[in-house]
Structure formats: structure tokens, C-alpha cells
Amino acid sequence: MAKRKGSKRTGSRQPEAIAMLIADHQKVQKMFKTFERTDDQQQQEQLATEICNELTVHTQLEEQVFYPAAREALEESDLVDEATVEHQVAKELIEKIRQSRPHDEEYCALVTVLGEYVNHHIDEEQKELFPQLKKTELDFDALGEEMQQKKQELMSELGLSKGEEMPMEGAMTRQQRRPASRSRAANR
């Protein structure tokens, strides 16, 4: 875990650890927006798979590396505690999405609710937690290196590399899926 360093972070450049998390946030938010605009079930399933994979790596990264460092650096850990609880709810939604398919009645609703939930979580981290951490003496350089290494390890454990997707649990073959040309509205 990154330990405290003798000097506070100054300047307008984001610390690498925070920049890495913000990049993850932006990537997944873009995927949720694309999902909202997509009616093709095959594309919906691919996007949902990518979203779930990104969030799985991201939540583990935060829980295993970033949050312990944040908890140590901050005098009060209320925001870290809240974020941890939010992660648990997100994991439950991810599991429900992984166990369902685009033709299931609640599939789009599950992905949409996860997106709304994640946006709330992102907003709290970026507007409250990150600014508080920047005021501490946390060694962001060491934390960023540790996070980068852990992210690669997590991606490897999940069978992912940059740009690849992990199949969802119980995923159907293309022959088993309903025709991809049906719209979300037709599934309701």
C-alpha cells in the first residue's frame, strides 16, 4: 500500500492514481451512453459484457489498493465506507446482468439502473473523495504504480487484456440467441 510522503501534491496535474480512476470512469460512462442508444441485442450484450468487466476490474482495484490507501490517509473514512457499500450493490447488479440476456424482460432496466448507480458513485468520488485525498500527504506516485500493476494482474486473472472482453457467465452461442434485429421496445 502507498504510504504517506513528505510533501503534498500541488499543481493542476491530476495525480496518476486519480487520473487512472477518472479514465476508467469516463470509459464506462461512454459505454453506458452507447448502450442507451443501441437497440441491437447482440451489441447490447457485447456492451453489457464490457461494462461488467470494466466495473469488475475497477471495483476490485479500488477495494484492494485505492480505498485502503484512502482510508489510511484520511482522518475520517465515511466516504470510503459509503463507496464500499455502493460497490456491493453494483456487484449485485453486475451479477444479475451476467445471468440474464438481452431478450429478458428486465435486461435493459438492469443495465440502465447500474449506469445510474455508477454515475452517482463517480460523482461522489470525483467531487468529494478525490479532492479530500489531494489535500493529504498520500504518495500518489507510489499508489499509481501499485494500482497500474494491480490492474494488469486483475485483468490477467479475468482473462482480459486491453481491448478484449470476457464472456459473461452462462453466455449463449449465437445460434441460441434470438435474432439481433429486435429492438429493446419489442422485448418489453
Short descriptors:
188 residues; mainly alpha; 0% strand; disordered N terminus
- The percentage of residues in β strands lies in under 5%
**Coarse structural class:** mainly alpha
Morphology call:
elongated
Helical run tally: 5
Query: Total number of β-strand segments?
Result: 0
Spans of at least 5 consecutive residues with low confidence = 1-11, 164-188
Radius of gyration: 18 Å
Mean pLDDT: 83
Helical content, roughly?
A: 55-70%
Overview of the structural elements:
The chain is mostly helical and 188 residues long. The protein has one domain (16-161). The chain has 5 helices and no strands. The chain has helices at 16-36, 41-73, 78-98, 107-134, 140-157. Helix 1 (16-36) runs antiparallel to helix 2 (41-73) and helix 1 packs antiparallel against helix 4 (107-134). The longest helix is centred in the N-terminal third of the chain and has 33 residues, at 41-73. The N and C termini lie far apart (47 Å).
Concise overview:
This protein is mostly helical and about 190 residues long.
Strand and helix layout:
Layout: H1 16-36, H2 41-73, H3 78-98, H4 107-134, H5 140-157
Helix pairs in contact: 1-2, 1-4, 1-5, 2-3, 2-5, 3-4
